Amino acid sequence: MDGRKQWAMAKAEMMLAMARLGFPEALGEELAKNLKSPKAMERMTSYLVNVRPTKPELVVDEMLAICSDIEAWREKKESEAANAFYNDILNNGLDH
User: pTM above 0.85?
Assistant: First the structure.
């Protein structure tokens, strides 16, 4: 399945979970914009289904937590790549 279809399916599932809890569609649209990836939206859908938050503030807090986790993971991966490159230079020199 291509990325656009996967994104659309994840968004539709999240929007359905939001509607079942009585949250406005506009909130779901904003969540999708901020979460950006199917995996992040799937994580949000899981939260909605399992926790069943009653306040929009709780949903937004979870969205922020998911975004924060994703950013921390990206920073970790960038740091690991930079460290591996640096170690390669130390072990093999710049001419390698």
Answer: no
